[in-house]
Specification:
single chain; alpha/beta; six-stranded mixed sheet; four-stranded antiparallel sheet; 7 helices
């Protein structure tokens, strides 16, 4: 009987070095298909490098990585990326950019089908469904450069959704937003996951930015995993202090909630 691989991502003993500096060190991580995993840690922990590695945009120094059942290497990185939606920390457009919201979201279909291919009816439906999912269908003809910060992130999520990916990688998608926009984007991400059960790997350095649907948390510091397990919503002062390099006394004796703001050095 053929063994069914239940993992969307498998990383085994992976090290990534840049100019003699280790960004990731002997990393081991498995992400089950359909799971929502948050990757948290301070700036410089290696979180973005890990996302780029999964997306085939960063080379490893040693180890093995499998994404969607394929051993990821230079040759098949592009084919794997067709099935991965990527949302960056911030989407910046020049206000003079003559591209509508609809056209910006439709780029997701181009990534799936390839360049120089005209969109067909299925593609157009996927774009409109994605716009509906994030609440931007009424703004589809607006120049994308005239959107607010929150609206631009919604458009970025819609672009990834239009791609109809198997995995969505999110690199601190709410860190540059104001409180209102952040809550809206977190709610959209949470609802999309509950409805579609796409595998999500969500990077942040702030606990309160983690959507409620998150089921598993990985804590990364200086390129190493210091803790991983079920996302409980609360963590011990000792663990959070170790992660962010701050004294446990800052938290008292109470567990630290994922809804609490954390100031770190």
């Amino acid at each position: 009987m053929r063994r069914i691989n239940m993992n969307a991502v498998e990383i085994s003993n992976v090290t990534v070095s840049f100019r003699g500096r280790r960004a990731l060190s002997n990393l081991n991580l498995s992400v089950r298909k359909g799971s929502f995993v948050s990757l948290i840690g301070p700036n410089g922990a290696g979180k973005t490098t890990l996302l780029k590695l999964i997306n085939g945009l960063a080379g490893k120094t040693s180890g093995r990585i499998s994404v969607l059942g394929k051993n990821l290497d230079f040759k098949n990185g592009r084919s794997v990326r067709k099935n991965i939606g990527y949302i960056a920390q911030e989407s910046v457009y020049d206000p003079r950019t003559p591209v509508s919201v609809y056209e910006a979201v439709a780029i997701g279909r181009t990534g799936r089908r390839g360049f120089f291919r005209r969109l067909n009816g299925e593609d157009r439906r996927a774009v409109m469904d994605a716009l509906e999912s994030v609440g931007l269908s009424q703004l589809r003809n607006r120049p994308v450069g005239r959107l607010s910060g929150g609206e631009r992130q919604k458009a970025a999520i819609a672009r990834a959704l239009a791609q109809q990916p198997d995995i969505m990688l999110m690199d601190e998608p709410t860190s540059s937003l104001d409180l209102k926009s952040r809550k809206e984007v977190v709610n959209i991400i949470d609802r999309i996951y509950r409805e579609k059960k796409i595998t999500v790997i969500y990077v942040t350095h702030l606990l309160e930015h983690i959507p409620p649907s998150c089921g598993y948390t990985v804590m990364l510091k200086k390129g190493r995993i210091i803790w991983s397990g079920e996302h409980r919503g609360t963590y011990s002062p000792r663990l959070i202090g170790r992660l962010y390099g701050i004294s446990e006394s800052c938290f008292g004796n109470e567990p630290v909630s994922s809804t609490a703001e954390i100031e770190y050095v």
